[in-house]
Design a protein that fits this description.
The structure holds two protein chains of two kinds.
Chain A lengths: L3 E3 L3 E5 L4 E7 L6 E7 L6 E7 L4 E3 L3 E6 L4 E6 L8 E8 L7 E3 L3 E6 L1
Parallel strand pairs in A: 2-11
Antiparallel strand pairs in A: 1-3, 3-8, 4-5, 4-9, 6-7, 7-8, 9-10, 9-11
Chain B lengths: L3 E4 L2 E4 L5 E7 L5 E7 L5 E9 L2 E4 L6 E3 L9 E3 L8 E8 L10 E2 L3 E5 L1
Parallel strand pairs in B: 2-11
Antiparallel strand pairs in B: 1-3, 3-8, 4-5, 4-9, 5-6, 7-8, 9-10, 9-11
The chains are: A mainly beta, B mainly beta.
């Protein structure tokens, strides 16, 4: 079936290092992708999005890469800070699927001081 | 501040009881959504509404009901037919997608537990 998934459930990173969080998707019809950050006890917070006509998009300290050939999405966080510790979700959306989001299971990022 | 307000933050339900979770947004968004999140899992769509007085079932609608009488409000009722209601419930909203997709914005959730 169609699914969005993450390669690793946990990621431990040293403060100041760069983080890379990966996501694989299986639906080639997906045309919009979002990364969310969720802190404990809170709702997901939008980080960055990318449309399928792009392969890279940059924000503040974050970069999202999209490889449609292998159906892979990644989130890079530069100079990881303690406040970056959270669960990160990728989500995909299809205009043909009534704009419903499909979420992966999430990657827990822990920043070591 | 514009945003999505969910209440209450914590809710307890007795066996056989219906409970209603509130979701209000002042973002002037057309579309609203309800998700369920279980520990260590992603979000699963319960119901969504793209416009007032209209809503559709998501992937796990059984045991739940919704209404959309006002643009800013999308309450979710967890009925006694939902046998495993303990979860974290998240409400989201977005501008209605037309030419291009838009991200969904989330509230801070309601945690429902069974007594």
């Amino acid at each position: 079936g169609e699914s969005v998934g993450l390669h690793l459930p946990t990621l431990s990173v040293q403060e100041g290092d760069n983080s890379i969080i990966n996501c694989a998707y299986s639906n080639s019809a997906s045309d919009y992708f979002i990364w969310y950050k969720q802190e404990s006890g809170k709702g997901p917070q939008f980080i960055i999005d990318i449309r399928s006509n792009m392969d890279k998009r940059q924000g503040q300290r974050v970069t999202v890469l999209l490889n449609k050939t292998v159906k892979h999405l990644s989130l890079q966080i530069a100079a990881t800070q303690p406040g970056d510790s959270a669960v990160y979700f990728c989500a995909e959306n299809q205009r043909s699927n009534d704009y419903k989001l499909s979420f992966g299971a999430g990657t827990t990022v822990t920043v070591r001081a | 501040d514009g945003g999505i307000t969910q209440s209450p933050k914590y809710l307890f339900r007795k066996e056989g009881q219906n409970v209603t979770l509130s979701c209000e947004q002042n973002l002037n968004h057309d579309a609203m959504y309800w998700y369920r999140q279980d520990p260590g899992q992603g979000l699963r769509l319960i119901y969504y509404s793209q416009i007032v007085n209209d809503f559709q079932k998501g992937d796990i609608a059984e045991g739940y009901s919704v209404s959309r009488e006002k643009k800013e409000s999308f309450p979710l009722t967890v009925t006694s037919a939902q046998k495993n209601p303990t979860a974290f419930y998240l409400c989201a909203s977005s501008p209605r997608g037309t030419e291009a997709n838009q991200p969904q914005h989330f509230g801070d959730g309601t945690r429902l537990s069974i007594l």
